[in-house]
Amino acid sequence: MTPATSLFSPVEADLQILAENLKQLVGNRHPILYAAAEHLFGAGGKRIRPAIVLLISRATMQEQDITPRHRRLAEITEMIHTASLVHDDVVDESEIRRGVPTVHSLFGNRIAVLAGDFLFAQSSWYLANLDSLEVVKLLSEVIMDLAAGEIQQGLNRFDSSTSLDVYLQKSYYKTASLIANSSKAAGVLSNVSSDTAEHLYNYGRHLGLAFQIVDDILDFTSSSDTLGKPAGSDLKSGNLTAPVLFALEEQPYLEVLTEREFAQQGDLEQAMNLIKNSQGIQRSKELATHHAKIAVEHIEVIPSSQSRQTLINLADYVLSRLY
Q1: Are 143 and 124 in contact (CB under 8 A)?
Q2: What is the enclosing helix (H) or strand (E) of 125?
Q3: Other CB atoms closer than 10 Å to residue 249's CB: what's the count?
């Protein structure tokens, strides 16, 4: 499997600049927030979201170098993503993220919530300073979507009647919206046509959905060490993802276990086995493949370049995480 870091070789230097800038953007006026930010930005994430912004920036600016505004957009994208993770971890009571302790487990819930709020506020301020109303609208929508996705997930816990459409909508809000809207925003900063901007949006949308579906499959097929969080944690918290929803169509007893919130001893293990012995995981793989394929079709409309090829390869990389 191609590691994400080598996949991003066309923007490797850009990502190094981004890593240095992120800590400076947060600033050290607030020692605890700065410590939290340093912990977050040093936690070795794959930086997939800002890498996509930088790749699209380079793919749409072939005759010239990318601008400081493109770089700042990539940094804002990572700040928004990181802020959402901090809040998610508080809501989900997660102790581990990317193999390291979460902000709230180190600093407490109060600091974690404030740190997330601070990052959202900082990203909004830097966003306003890009002086592009269209980009402000695109990224502001993401922040609304992240909150809507988290609320929707909370309301649908342990609800075995959840439809696949509702699941995909929540996956869009929580994961794909940021990738879709920041991809389009990168194109807007490159002054691409409105038609091309829509293709960039749809590339990000479908890649984001594929990415989330694969993540949800890995919750059942991967080890805790690989995931950087306990395997089966989504199911345990009542977050019913694609493999569960497909398995529910085949395994009636899974509904019984889910509706009683895996309250009895052995319920969770039994539910995991029912899912693994169904077509749920295979059908989810097919769904992820479908969205990755559509993403590639949308990105192929922009002129050929090394950056465009990397964006195509990224769709394969997302799927390769399953094997």
Answers
A1: yes
A2: helix 109-128
A3: 13
Mean pLDDT calculated for residue range 260-287:
96
User: Residues 278, 246: contact at Cβ < 8 Å?
Assistant: yes
DSSP code of 9? G
The partner residues of 96 in beta bridges, in order of sequence, read: 101
pLDDT level of residue 229 (50, 70, 90 thresholds):
low
Mean pLDDT for the stretch of residues 297-321: 96
CA–CA separation, 164 vs 240, rounded Å?
10
DSSP label of 172: I
Give the 3-state secondary structure of residue 16. Answer: helix
What tokens were used for 219? 């919750």
Q: Which amino acid is at 248?
A: L
Q: Is the dihedral of CA 157, 161, 167, 169 positive or negative?
A: negative
Query: In terms of Cα–Cα distance, which of 205, 230, 219 is closest to 89?
Result: 230
- Write out the E strands in 27-171: 96-97, 100-101
pLDDT at 41 over 80: no
The mean per-residue pLDDT over the stretch 287-309 comes to: 97
The full set of domains in the chain, from first to last, is 4-320 (1.10.600.10)
311's tokens: 């964006």
Q: State pLDDT tens for residues 174-228.
A: 999 999 999 999 999 999 999 999 999 999 999 999 999 999 999 999 865 565 5
